[in-house]
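Re: [ENG-882] Designed sequences occasionally contain unexpected residues at chain ends

Forwarding the minimal case from QA. Structure tokens:
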């Protein structure tokens, strides 16, 4: 009895051990098969059966011939006979261990480990491990695809090359044989196929599919690419042949195509295209694959956006270069250390240095006279330290140095350009030698007019006046008429000379304005009083503000009165008999706007700026018949601008013009 109980206990212990072993074997994620030296299977687990589709339970294989199992499973592999031969080779070679990767017909990938167990130098058992690594290989392939796409986009020179290389990379990496890149035509609001990819060399499916894609033009919502464009999100189609919204469904069925993925391409905040990838098998939606294709489409969008920015930058640089090279002024750029970075052809001609000679050199050493270099260096250092500058945003006259050592007067204006933490400065330099020579000639001319013409004309005018008074005796009627004409033209010539001198002095700043705070009303009244006789003679009514303005202005009263007399006089001269001229004053926040309105013929739009230029009179009008030098409005503009104001003209409905100007109010 005791021995029987021991035997039963031993069997129970063995049974428990077998159960634990079976549980351990079935918990393995790898398929396991162990055979003895006679090729009999001694151990096999459930995963092995699952990998090769063998019936369960696995224990039914224990004791069977492993060669038969090889024969039963070799059909799963892409190279069945090679698989069987390889097993025999490994068993015969008596290697200590071996690892390899195998491909299955259904697309899966297995890793196989062969481990012989030796006893007395001979293999007693053979252990085979099969691991399904399809998911890992798929993920690695997808990761490599993304990397290949990234490299392709970095190396592409244009959008066509980028799209072509991207489609081929995805096709090869994912094993999806057909692809297309669609682009949005923003003007036509249509989606058109720009690039296709397929087998190389092209097979029938590639040719037919590409031709069909290139023939169609899709609007928003049309077909699957159009829907992606309209919805702005990726779409996955499990079976293109049965998809009613796919315009090429009939062709897809004829070619035996399966699933498709469509993803939008974004650039500059909008959809600019759609990527399309097609495989030969139907497939369930794969979210990871959809995200991958969407990510690839985003990469293409970033490339297009970057390429557009690069093209715009190149175009801007080319335009800037053309402007620099054609500019009449010398243009040069220095960095924060004062070293020359740009030197245009006009600068080469002006300073006498070739561009290559000055680039990288300190500007102060090249074009700044020696006695000004220390001031220049201190000024640049002070600006970089405090932001203060006496040159930025202004036109400054100073001496500049030529390559031959001579100096010349120059007008320089400088702008600051912000860089990546380091500013640069661009200067525009103009040689003032010719301008100063012209200024000298003008001063000499004005002096000549003043002394050589005005003085004799004044004397001539006086003499004609005496003759008209009969101091030299009586005159015949014809002689009196000729004398009147001569006196009138002499007065006009003296007025013209005085206007020329007045405008020159105002423009050159040699007239000192005597600005004083005072009421605006008296100035208006004096101007109206001065023009009153002319208005009465013409039969024109002067209309004044209902209430006398009480605004106080800061002006030279005599000069503003001169502006008003000129504007009122012109309004009266060009108004019809019985017409009216209004004088208005409108105080504003910081200035008073004074207007003179008339009922005359008005001024054409193209003349409204030109009438304030010297010697300009509206063509087709009777300006010359009404007298005037063509300088009155130019003098008005010079006076108003010397006060810091503005002047202009605008049409008045139904007829006439409104001349206005603004002068500062007393703070």
């Amino acid at each position: 009895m005791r021995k029987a109980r021991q035997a039963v206990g031993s069997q129970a212990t063995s049974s428990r051990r077998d159960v634990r072993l079976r549980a351990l074997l079935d918990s393995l994620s790898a398929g396991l098969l162990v055979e003895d030296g006679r090729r009999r299977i001694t151990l096999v687990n459930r995963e092995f059966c699952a990998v090769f589709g063998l019936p369960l339970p696995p224990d039914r294989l224990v004791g069977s011939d492993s060669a038969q199992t090889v024969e039963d499973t070799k059909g799963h592999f892409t190279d069945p006979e090679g698989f069987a031969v390889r097993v025999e080779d490994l068993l015969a070679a008596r290697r200590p261990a071996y690892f390899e990767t195998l491909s299955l017909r259904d697309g899966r990938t297995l890793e196989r480990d062969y481990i012989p167990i030796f006893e007395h130098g001979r293999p007693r058992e053979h252990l085979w491990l099969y691991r399904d690594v399809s998911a890992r290989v798929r993920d690695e392939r997808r990761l490599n695809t993304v990397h290949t796409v990234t490299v392709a986009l970095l190396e592409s020179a244009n959008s066509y090359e980028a799209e072509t290389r991207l489609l081929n990379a995805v096709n090869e990496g994912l094993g999806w044989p057909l692809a297309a890149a669609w682009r949005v035509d923003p003007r036509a609001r249509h989606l058109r196929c720009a690039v296709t990819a397929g087998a190389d060399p092209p097979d029938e499916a590639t040719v037919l599919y590409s031709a069909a894609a290139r023939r169609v033009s899709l609007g928003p919502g049309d077909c699957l690419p159009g829907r992606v464009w309209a919805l702005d999100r990726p779409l996955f189609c499990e079976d293109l042949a049965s998809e009613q919204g796919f315009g090429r469904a009939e062709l897809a069925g004829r070619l035996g195509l399966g699933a498709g993925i469509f993803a939008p391409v974004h650039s500059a905040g909008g959809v600019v295209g759609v990527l399309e990838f097609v495989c030969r098998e139907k497939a369930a939606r794969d979210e990871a694959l959809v995200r991958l294709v969407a990510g690839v489409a985003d990469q293409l969008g970033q490339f297009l956006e970057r390429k557009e920015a690069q093209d715009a930058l190149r175009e801007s640089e080319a335009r800037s270069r053309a402007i620099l090279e054609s500019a009449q002024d010398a243009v040069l750029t220095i960095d924060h250390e004062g070293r020359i970075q740009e030197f245009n052809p006009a600068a080469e001609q002006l300073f006498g240095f070739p561009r290559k000679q000055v680039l990288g050199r300190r500007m102060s050493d090249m074009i700044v006279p020696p006695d000004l270099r220390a001031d220049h260096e201190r000024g640049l250092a002070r600006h970089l330290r405090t932001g203060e500058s006496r040159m930025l945003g202004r036109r400054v006259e100073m001496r500049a140095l030529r390559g031959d050592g001579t100096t010349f007067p120059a007008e320089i204006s400088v702008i600051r350009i912000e860089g990546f933490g380091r500013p640069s400065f661009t200067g525009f330099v103009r040689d003032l030698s010719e301008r100063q020579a012209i200024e000298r000639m003008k001063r000499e001319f004005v002096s000549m007019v003043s002394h050589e013409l005005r003085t004799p004309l004044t004397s001539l005018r006086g003499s004609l006046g005496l003759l008209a008074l009969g101091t030299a005796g009586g005159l015949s009627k014809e002689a009196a008429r000729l004398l009147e004409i001569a006196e009138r033209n002499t007065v006009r010539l003296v007025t013209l000379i005085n206007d020329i001198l007045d405008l020159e002095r105002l423009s050159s700043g040699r007239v000192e304005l005597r600005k004083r705070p005072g009421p605006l009303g008296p100035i208006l009244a004096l101007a109206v009083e001065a023009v009153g006789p002319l208005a009465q003679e013409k039969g024109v009514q002067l209309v004044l503000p209902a209430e006398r303005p009480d605004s106080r202005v800061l002006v030279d009263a005599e000069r503003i009165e001169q502006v008003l007399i000129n504007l009122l006089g012109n309004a009266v001269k060009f108004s019809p008999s019985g017409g009216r001229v209004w004088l208005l004053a409108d105080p504003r926040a910081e200035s008073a706007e004074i207007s003179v309105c008339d009922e005359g013929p008005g001024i054409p739009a193209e003349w409204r700026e030109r009438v304030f230029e010297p010697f300009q009179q509206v063509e087709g009008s009777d300006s010359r018949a009404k007298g005037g030098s063509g300088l009155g409005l130019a003098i008005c503009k010079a006076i108003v601008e010397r006060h810091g104001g503005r002047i202009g003209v605008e049409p008045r409905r139904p007829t006439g013009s409104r001349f206005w100007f603004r002068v500062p109010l007393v703070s």
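QA comment: On inspection the terminal residues look reasonable. The chain has a mean pLDDT of 85. Proposing we downgrade this to a documentation issue.
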